[in-house]
Design goal:
This protein is α/β, with parallel strands linked by helices. The chain is built from 10 helices and 7 strands. The chain has a 7-stranded parallel beta sheet, with helices on both faces. It is globular, with a radius of gyration of 17 Å.
């Protein structure tokens, strides 16, 4: 997929995408770079993948900063944003893409720690770098966005609840962000083909993805959904700060 965003639409801008060494984050950061942005690739433990992607984006003539950070560790987040400050002096785009909670061997409160607390902390730490006219995008799923009115698979419920808690906590910051001229958009998508979450869900609940695909008619793949996330960076902020991607007929109101 090419020309997702108008050529040059992000010339001179600096964009940080959390969790961008692979999957939706990697494709999103690529689309932003293709539109002219200098970018920050953040990873937790996939340094080789992050460096490989960075090399590709530098071939486009972009400045690329690669920063490993554990988003659940405020000190690690502070070090990451210090590196951004030193390299670029500011941020124009912050895409809060990193999430998790279905991994095995994590602490019981890991989903909430990553999907709510870390998101709020990354935003708070980034605000001093975000100038007027900048944009924050939070990436979530319909299963999380609509969790209060539409039950999801039991295996995914803890993640869905934690991501909705994160979305709510971020939305509370909208007035403060708006006062600084910072736009905020939530991008919510259905199950995405080929993501880690989909793979883990399928393992826990065989047939779940096929069932959802049949119900929805089709599911977006990683690059298609990442394109919607990238468009949310440049499109006007919706009145309700929400961009819904894919079929929502199976989900009740918020």
């Amino acid at each position: 997929m090419t020309d997702v965003l108008p050529a040059g639409s992000l010339d001179g801008k600096v964009a940080l995408v959390t969790g961008s060494s692979r999957g939706i984050g990697a494709d999103t950061v690529r689309y932003l770079a293709e539109a002219g942005a200098d970018v920050v690739i953040n990873y937790r433990n996939k340094a080789p993948r992050a460096e490989k992607l960075a090399a590709q984006l530098r071939e486009l003539g972009r400045r690329v900063l690669v920063v490993g950070a554990d988003l659940t560790d405020p000190e690690s987040v502070g070090t990451m944003l210090e590196a951004v400050q030193n390299e670029f002096g500011r941020l124009d785009v912050l895409v809060l893409n990193a999430s998790g909670g279905m991994e095995s061997g994590m602490a019981e409160d890991y989903a909430l720690s990553l999907n709510r607390d870390a998101q709020v902390n990354v935003l708070a730490a980034s605000v001093p770098l975000l100038a007027e006219g900048s944009r924050v995008v939070f990436v979530t799923s319909h299963q999380a966005h609509f969790i209060r009115t539409t039950p999801t698979m039991p295996e995914y419920e803890p993640v869905a609840l934690s991501k909705r808690a994160g979305e709510d906590a971020l939305r509370e910051r909208i007035p403060e962000l708006a006062a600084k001229g910072i736009g905020f958009t939530v991008v919510s998508g259905d199950m995405i083909e080929g993501t880690i979450t989909a793979t883990l869900l399928e393992r826990a609940n065989p047939g779940a993805i096929a069932e959802r695909r049949e119900s929805a008619g089709r599911l977006y793949n990683v690059s298609e959904f990442a394109a919607e996330v990238a468009r949310a960076v440049v499109d006007p902020v919706p009145a309700d700060n929400t961009r819904l991607v894919g079929d929502v007929s199976a989900f009740g109101g918020e």
